[in-house]
Every structure is written in C-alpha cells, then in structure tokens.
Design brief:
Elements (H helix, E strand, L loop, with lengths): L1 H36 L3 H25 L5 H21 L6 H30 L4 H28 L5 H23 L16 H5 L2 H31 L4 H25 L5 H20 L4 H14 L3 H12 L4 H17 L1 H10 L2 H24 L5
Helix pairs in contact: 1-4, 1-5, 1-6, 1-8, 2-4, 2-13, 2-14, 3-4, 3-6, 4-5, 4-13, 5-6, 5-9, 5-12, 8-9, 8-13, 8-15, 9-11, 10-11, 10-12, 10-15, 12-13, 14-15
Length: 391
C-alpha cells in the first residue's frame, strides 16, 4: 500500500509543479501581452484581481467544507478546472475583445490552482501525517522546480516565432494538465481512501476565534505581497527598469527560483537544528534586506546578485509556514492550509496598486515595498511565538 500511495504522491508532485508553472506564467507573459494588446499595467493588474476574487471564494469554501470532501478527487477536479481555464484563455484570446475572455478564463483557472494549492497541502499533511515535515518540503520543492521552468518554457515558446506566444503557453499548460488528470484518475484505484471529517464543519467559527489564526493570516498576507509581487512584476522590472534583454531577464528569474529551490532542499536539514519560527524569521530578514540592497543599487550586476540572494533566503519559508499552520490546527488540515492560500488571494487583490505604484512612482519603490512587507512578516511571526500567542 505504501508503494501505491507513493505512485500517487509522485503524480501529485508533478501536478504541483505544473500549478507553479501556471501561477508564474502570468508574470512572464505580461510584457508581451501588454505590447501585443496595447494595454497598461493597470489593465494587467485587473487580471490578477479577477483571479484573486475567484481564488479567495474557493479558499473560503474549502476552508469550510474541505474536510468533508474526498481530497484526492478534489485535486483531480481542481486540475480539470485549471486545464479548462488555460484552454479557454488560449482559444478565445484572439477575439475582438480578448481581455473579457482572458479575465474570465484565467479566473476559472486560478480557482483550480487555488483548490490544488490548498488541498495538496492538507492532503499531504493528513495522508502522510507521520512524515509531513519531510513530504511538505518535497512537494514545495516541485513547486520551486515549476517556478524555475516557467521562464525557460516561455522562452522556448517565443523562439518558435508565434505572433502571440502567451496563447501557446496557456495551451501547453492545458494539455499537460489533461495528461496528469488521466494519470491521477487511473491511479485512484490504488490510493488509500480519503479521510473525511464531516463533523468538523461546525467548528470553523471557533477557528476564526483563535488569535493565533489571525496572526498567522497577517504574517501570511505580508509574505504573499512579496511573493505575488515577485511573480507578477519581476520580469517587468528587469526589462523596463534595468533594460535587460528577454534572455537576461529570464535567466535572472530562473536564478531567483533556483536559489529558492536550493534553500528549500537545505531547509529539511536546517530545521533539524533550529526552530521553525527562528528559521522563518532569519530567512525573512535576510531575504528582505537582500532585495532592498539590490533595488537601491545602481549596478545591474549587484542588482542581479542580491535579487538571487533574496530568492535563496526566502526559499524555505512557505513550507515552514505550512508546517507551523498545520501544527497549530492539527484537526483541521484543510482550514490550516487555507490560511496561506487565502493570504495569496488577498495579496492579489492588491495587485492593481502594484502596477499603479510602478506607473506613478518607480520600480525601485515597488521592490522596496514588498521587501519591507517580507521583513514585517518575519517579525510578526517571531514575536507571535516568542510571546506565546497561541489562543
């Protein structure tokens, strides 16, 4: 049975990797989309807002009803939504009013992505409860691999010389999602039965009444502001503010997420020697300072080096946060996982202001803002555990 479960785990790792490619694709395609469709950063930011609205509603519903749903089948259904959204964004982007279709279908795809993100963490925490501290970093390592692959795949798509490469990128994502859905469906007969906790649905208000829940949510939102800002606007910062070529920008994005992946792998060893909250605090401070030093530097080389260091130091913070949240509410894996997922959706609701800050002020102001947000997240989480804020 363990071997059969591991087969499913491998497929789920690839699904998480694909979901990372999807969520990071928007930042890669945005410059080309703005140029081809003659749009502004504010318009692009509205796409993130629509995605966030759908994702936030999904995370709220799953935090309430997620425990009573079969998680494995939920992951398959979520992957199907993500694939349908990607196909729709691809097939209808050539219409006379493409943004109306892009808004809608990417919102559908993001609902699927949100369900994958939330359910994946709760499924692993529950199914592999004894070794979740190892399994969670593994699936987040695959997420990091997906983030690394995104600019490489998009550069390859652009070199095929399509007039609208973002269309082909979303089409490719939809095809890959269908392949994984088929694999997961046929593997279903070999998986163990999902645990369903229908009796817990009435306890959600008690979770909201926990002071720890709100502190974790605040820390997660501040981190998510950093994460969403990097994913959506780092390529634009490279191309516009630093005048990098597409290849150089792609290489820097790859290096950023490669550094994050290395730290994610190292975190499994580091966490054996330091506490979760201390690790989160130190890495958050170092990452935020690195991004500040890079953004204020007049040298492109120094900017690139410190940006990569920022990616490296923050690499293990997400799985660390997930473990902290899961340990805080062990009887509600879906609800605890929804904390970070909801935070990402809330951060995306702020996305229009990201574009406006860049338009009206500068890329440096934007990078400084998300760096301070990350530092504040680290401070809040550390103070929370040092003072024993547990109720």
């Amino acid at each position: 049975m363990r071997e059969k479960r591991d087969h499913s785990f491998i497929l789920l790792c690839f699904l998480y990797c694909l979901s990372a490619v999807f969520i990071n694709t928007f930042g890669q395609v945005s410059p080309d989309m703005m140029q081809i469709l003659h749009s502004t950063r504010d318009t692009q930011s509205l796409i993130l807002t629509w995605q966030a609205v759908g994702g936030l509603l999904c995370s709220i519903l799953l935090s309430i009803f997620g425990e009573s749903l079969p998680k494995y089948l939920t992951l398959i259904a979520a992957a199907l939504l993500m694939s349908l959204g990607c196909f729709g964004a691809s097939f209808f982007s050539g219409q006379s009013d493409p943004y109306a279709f892009i808004f809608f279908f990417l919102m559908v795809a993001n609902i699927g992505y949100t369900a994958i993100d939330l359910t994946m963490n709760s499924y692993v925490s529950e199914t592999y409860a004894k070794d979740k501290s190892t399994r969670l970093p593994v699936i987040h390592t695959f997420y990091g691999i997906g983030a690394i692959l995104t600019p490489l795949v998009y550069l390859a798509v652009k070199r095929i010389s399509f007039t609208r490469p973002y269309i082909m990128m979303y089409l490719l994502l939809g095809v890959c999602a269908v392949a994984l859905i088929l694999g997961l469906f046929f593997q279903k007969r070999d998986t163990c039965k999902d645990k369903i906790h229908s009796s817990l649905n009435g306890d959600l208000l008690r979770l909201f009444g926990s002071f720890r829940f709100w502190l974790l949510l605040l820390a997660a939102i501040l981190y998510a502001v950093f994460q969403c800002g990097i994913s959506a606007w780092l390529p634009d910062c490279n191309l516009t503010a630093r005048s990098f070529s597409s290849s150089a920008s792609g290489l820097l994005v790859v290096s950023f997420f490669s550094g994050a992946l290395v730290m994610r792998l190292l975190s499994t060893r580091i966490l054996k020697k330091v506490s979760l909250s201390t690790y989160y605090f130190v890495c958050g401070i170092l990452s935020g300072i690195s991004l500040l030093l890079g953004s204020f530097s007049g040298s492109d080389l120094i900017y690139a080096v410190f940006t990569v260091l920022a990616g490296f130091f923050q690499g293990g913070m997400v799985p660390t946060f997930m473990i902290l949240a899961s340990d805080s509410f062990p009887d509600r894996p879906s609800s605890s996982s929804s904390i970070f997922v909801s935070a990402v959706c809330i951060a995306n609701l702020i996305a229009p202001y990201f574009g406006r800050i860049i338009e009206t002020r500068s890329h440096m102001t934007f990078l400084s803002l998300i760096a301070f947000s990350l530092i504040l997240s680290a401070i809040i989480l550390k103070l929370m555990y040092r003072r024993g804020k547990t109720q």
